[in-house]
Amino acid sequence: MSTHRHPSDVPIPPADLRPSGEPPYWEPGTVICWRYGRAVRPMRVVRDDAVGLVAWLAPRTPVLKSVLANGNDIRSVPIGPARFTTPRASKRDVWHGTGILKIAPTGVPWSVWVFWDDEGGHREWYVNLEQIHVRDKENVYTRDHVLDLVVHPDRRVVRKDEDEFAAAVEVGRFDAEVAAQIEEAADEVERSVAAWEPPFCDGWERWRPDPDWPLPSLPPTFTPHLP
Predict the structure, then answer these.
(1) Strand runs (DSSP E) across the chain, as ranges?
(2) Cα–Cα separations (whole angstroms), residue 148 to 86, 94, 126, 164
(3) Which of 227, 225, 215, 226 is nearest to 41 (CA)?
(4) Is the pLDDT of residue 12 over 80?
(5) Quick one: which of 53, 65, 147, 189 has the fewest CB in 10 Å?
(6) Looking at residue 101, what DSSP letter applies?
(7) Cβ contact 79:167 at 8 Å
(8) Is-contact 33 139, C-beta < 8 A?
(9) Are 100 and 115 within 8 A, CB to CB?
(10) Does the pLDDT value for residue 160 go beyond 50?
């Protein structure tokens, strides 16, 4: 387990980065890592082009997740400034649940996650507000912006984690200008849903992974070290 103050304290590696959405593109089936600071999720590319990146996070995929320095879940800290100032670490785990199809439209500060229930029915689109994506040869990089939205199959939109976002602003993780930009991004998502624009109208909820795909592995360079 490797300890650090907060995922946002870890800089995005500066070398060989380029905006996501520009060639060269990854071939379908390529295994990449989707990175939020020290959190690392190996995923398999479904589509990658000028429109955006689509990748599959399979159930039980080995991942690195962000936790408290004592190994507890971050959400064990009550919502408030302490959630963003308590020392953190990263540890090896596996992805729990039914898997996620992540869609990162080019040039926007969010990604859209397609969730299914245990029976394979479409449950919701989860819009994770985050930094505009950049990449190198094997990774896509972003930063979580705390505020999220849930889009139900009936197109009803619910904002999520507004209290946590307010705490992040209070503690200074986001200044007033950046906070306003994040709020505007949430407004843009709501307008996109109201107009039923891509990727919501693209039918990704009907997509299913190839059952013969093997689980990706976590690259050994991302294995945390015990203190």
Answers:
(1) 2-4, 18-19, 31-36, 39-48, 52-57, 62-68, 88-94, 100-105, 110-116, 122-130, 134-135, 139-142, 144-151, 157-160
(2) 22, 23, 7, 10
(3) 215
(4) no
(5) 65
(6) E
(7) yes
(8) yes
(9) yes
(10) yes
C-alpha–C-alpha distance, residues 98 and 82, integer Å: 31
- Phi, psi torsion values for 189, nearest 5 degrees: -60, -45
Cα-Cα-Cα-Cα torsion 163, 165, 169, 175, nearest 10 degrees, comes to: -150
The angle formed by the CA atoms of residues 169, 184 and 155, to the nearest 5 degrees, is 115
85: enclosing H helix or E strand:
helix 82-85
Q: What is the pLDDT of residues 61-109, one digit of tens each?
A: 999 998 998 889 998 999 998 999 999 888 999 999 899 999 999 999 9
Residue 149 pairs in a beta bridge with: 127, 159
Is residue 131 left, alpha or beta, with left meaning phi > 0 and alpha meaning psi from -120 to 50? beta
DSSP-derived 3-state class of residue 40: strand
Q: What are phi and psi of 125, to 5 degrees?
A: -100, 130
Distance CA 163, CA 93 (A): 27
pLDDT at 182 over 50: yes
**Distant-in-sequence, close-in-space partners of 199: CB < 8 Å, separation ≥ 6:** 52, 103, 105, 112
Distance CA 67, CA 91 (A): 7
Query: Does the model's pTM come out above 0.85?
Result: yes
pLDDT band at 52 (very low <50, low <70, confident <90, very high): very high
Instruction: Give the separation between CA 25 and CA 158, rounded to whole angstroms.
Output: 33
Distance CA(118)–CA(28), nearest Å, equals 26
- Kindly state the tokens that stand for 20: 């996501």
